[in-house]
Design brief:
Largest sheet: 7 strands, parallel
Helix content: 25-40%
Strand order of the largest sheet: 8-9-7-10-11-6-12
CATH superfamily of the largest domain: P-loop containing nucleotide triphosphate hydrolases
Number of domains: 4
Bound molecules: adenosine-5'-diphosphate, zinc ion
CATH topology of the largest domain: Rossmann fold
Distance between the termini: 51 Å
CATH class of the largest domain: Alpha Beta
Number of helices: 18
Strand content: 15-25%
Radius of gyration: 27 Å
CATH architecture of the largest domain: 3-Layer(aba) Sandwich
């Protein structure tokens, strides 16, 4: 009888592969890396199970060539987590191993030497001696009743209500019990401030995110696994970390859609975290000023414990929100007089203004006034955005770049109109208007260098700038005490977007960015420019607040039978031939419709229906329960390969989609 290892190969393959364990190779356990021959290449794989082969085999198995780890680096608990993720999101297990481990691990490298004083935080500030508010104390009292078992808390606290102190207090209690805390934030820019915040006395804090060098990532991974740290602060991929003494998970800004991975294994780190906490029987805190519809629904089903914090520290009031109607002004006016004079007032008082818009570049549409030519991406059929700084046209969907020197490519005219505005254009207008002031633009184009963003954020806090112009990079979580005016531009597109999550994301963004105003001692103001001041969603949000607005949204979704009251999976097919993708999905629809109790919508072209030369079509599968959704999709996957044309179709499955095209 032979010993067989079932091995996960780091590739998008649904199967595990059987290899014979040679008798003289030593002891092999699940979680160890091995080298094996795969096809004609020698590659690294991870052992998932070990079984015995009963009786003679009909085919000859290849043998494992070498054991890389004498002691497994991945424990059973982590393997089980990866298997769960693979099952829930219908993602190949090898792919989950791929995104769940550091690159040097996957390359078969030996562990780095476990170094002294590796976790050092620059500029570590001693935390102020803070007297907790009543709301903070009440929140802590509720959470600390469940330090030894699973309970999911929604810490629903308005911006500036002091949620971080609550996290810290609970983390400290977990630390005193000898356990580790995992904190996940939506963006790596939020990590440095938190590292400083949590670094006190002997508490060992470590970061984990995609900007670490491969070596640093492997080192940190190893330190975390060996309980050499007490707090891990990371982005979504930290949910895969093996943390031996995990005692608490905190998901900050739980509503944020960056927790969802939109390629490969489409996991949602927040949802995996809840599963993980439940499995491990430990508490989890979801924090937000604008909780997501899914989470509010879970609260209303009594699955989560709702803790509200409705006052800002020092009882500062939330900023006043003023709507400015742009529909009755000349088209050429991009920034209203009211906004200009409000900024002037702030400059006079040495206060800062933040101008927020969700579009980088100069202008989203350019056109020739002589022949009406509009540059489009040849691969995606979408308008290209003009980036004036570099004289480039860029497709914001596939990244295609083209030189552009203000000359029409169709008729050579130089009479080009720039329609709509991005951060670069707003920067240009503001610089003309406020030539004496210090102005900074912050978006993914302006902050490409490592460490640059942190430096800029520190300069903002040191008051080196009067006006900040930026995208959602500025709207999340940051604390800029001297910002007293927030101006929001360009929301009109999102008001009418066909995407299911668009309106919810807009509401969250408006509240979040407003929350950047008036966080110091001075009262804040928010100005919203829109051509649709009568819009119902907008009015409800402004007049009644986020909580009431969310109740209305949920009522509507319940009546329409839509998520979060229903569970969605989207099967997307991509093909160079539209009809093939359509027929492919029609076949899947038939397979799925055999099961009762599920509905399907489509196939239909996705919002972004042509992308990088492929047509994208979606089939939405809707079920009343997650289990049912999982069952019908799992049932159809093995038959997909039998569908005609399936070889030429690229298909993906997205469970609990967030930002699907
Ligand atoms: P939130 O995450 O809820 O928006 P933060 O946790 O960032 O709010 O807190 C806002 C600010 O208030 C921070 O500068 C924090 O240091 C400060 N703060 C928090 N709690 C207290 C307190 N009890 N007394 C004084 N300042 C506090
Ligand atoms: Zn032209
Ligand atoms: Zn493109």
């Amino acid at each position: 009888m032979k010993n067989i290892a079932k091995i996960a190969i780091i590739k998008p393959l649904h199967n595990l592969f059987d290899y014979e364990i040679p008798e003289d190779i030593g002891i092999l356990e699940p979680g160890s890396r091995v080298s094996v021959e795969f096809g004609k290449r020698i590659i690294i794989g991870v052992v998932v199970h070990i079984t015995k082969q009963d009786g003679p085999s009909s085919y000859k198995l290849k043998k494992i060539l070498e054991i890389i780890d004498k002691k497994p680096l991945i424990e059973k608990e982590t393997i089980d987590l990866f298997i769960w993720i693979s099952n829930y999101y219908h993602a190949p297990l090898g792919q989950v191993f791929g995104i769940g481990t550091p690159s040097l691990f996957r390359k078969g490298k030996k562990l780095p030497k476990v170094e002294k004083n590796i976790i050092e935080i620059n500029k570590a500030k001693l935390s102020k001696n803070i007297v907790l508010t009543k709301e903070q104390n009440d929140a802590i009292k509720i959470i600390e009743k469940s330090l030894d078992f699973y309970e999911c808390f929604l810490l629903d606290g308005i911006t500036g209500s002091g949620k971080t102190e609550v996290y810290k207090s609970i983390q400290n209690k977990i630390y005193e019990k000898g356990y580790q805390t995992l904190i996940i934030v939506p963006e790596k820019n939020l990590i440095p401030e938190l590292l400083r915040y949590f670094k006190i006395k002997n508490v060992r804090v470590i970061e984990y995110h995609s900007s670490l060098t491969p070596k640093k990532k492997f080192t940190n991974w190893n330190l975390i696994q060996n309980h050499k740290v007490d707090i891990i602060i990371g982005t979504r991929s930290s949910i895969f970390l093996q943390i031996p003494k995990l005692g608490l998970i905190i998901i900050d800004e739980e509503h944020d859609t960056s927790f969802k991975n939109n390629s490969e294994a489409r996991y949602n780190a927040r949802d995996v975290a809840v599963f993980r906490a439940k499995n491990k029987n430990i508490p989890i805190i979801l924090g937000s000023a604008t909780p997501s519809s899914e989470t509010i629904l879970n609260v209303s089903k009594n699955k989560y414990t709702h803790i509200k914090m409705r006052n800002r520290i020092n009882n500062q009031s939330l900023p006043a929100l003023n709507v400015i109607n742009m529909s009755n002004r000349k088209k050429s006016i991009i920034i209203s007089e009211e906004v200009i004079s409000a900024i002037k007032y702030r400059i006079k008082n040495k206060e800062q203004t933040l101008i927020f818009l969700n579009r980088r570049g100069y202008s989203p549409v350019i056109t020739c006034r002589d022949c009406s030519w509009v540059p489009k991406c040849s691969a995606c059929n979408l308008n290209m955005t003009f980036h004036k700084n570099k004289n480039l046209l860029m497709c914001h969907h596939c990244g295609l770049l083209k030189k552009f020197n203000n000359i029409c490519k169709a008729c050579n005219s130089n009479d080009i109109a720039f329609i709509g505005e991005g951060t670069e254009k707003i920067e240009e207008i503001i610089k003309e208007e406020f030539s004496e002031s210090n102005i900074i633009r912050i978006d993914s184009d302006s902050t490409k260098k490592k460490g640059q963003t942190e430096e800029i954020f520190n300069d903002i806090k040191d008051n080196k700038y009067d006006i900040l112009i930026g995208t959602q990079m500025l709207s999340k979580g940051h604390n800029f005490p001297n910002v007293t005016l927030v101006v929001v531009m360009n929301i009109d597109q999102s008001l009418f977007s066909p995407r299911l999550k668009a309106i919810e994301q807009l509401a969250q963004q408006l509240i979040q960015v407003s929350g950047r105003s008036g966080r110091g001692n001075k009262k804040g103001e928010v100005i919203l420019q829109t051509s649709f001041p009568e819009n119902e969603d907008l009015n409800c949000l402004i007049k009644e607040g986020y909580e009431k607005w969310m109740q209305n949204l949920l009522l509507l979704r319940n009546n329409l039978g839509l998520p979060p009251y229903r569970n969605w999976g989207i099967i997307q097919a991509r093909s160079s031939k539209y009809l093939n993708a359509e027929k492919f999905l029609e076949n899947i629809k038939i397979m799925i419709s055999k099961h009762g109790g599920v509905e399907t919508f489509g196939p239909m072209p996705s919002v972004m229906h042509k992308r990088v030369n492929l047509y994208n079509l979606n089939l939405i599968v809707q079920a009343k329960s997650k289990a049912q959704l999982n069952y019908v999709i799992k049932d159809c996957i093995p038959h997909i390969k039998d569908i005609p044309y399936s070889n030429n179709i690229r298909w993906t499955i997205d469970i609990d989609p967030v930002d699907y095209d």
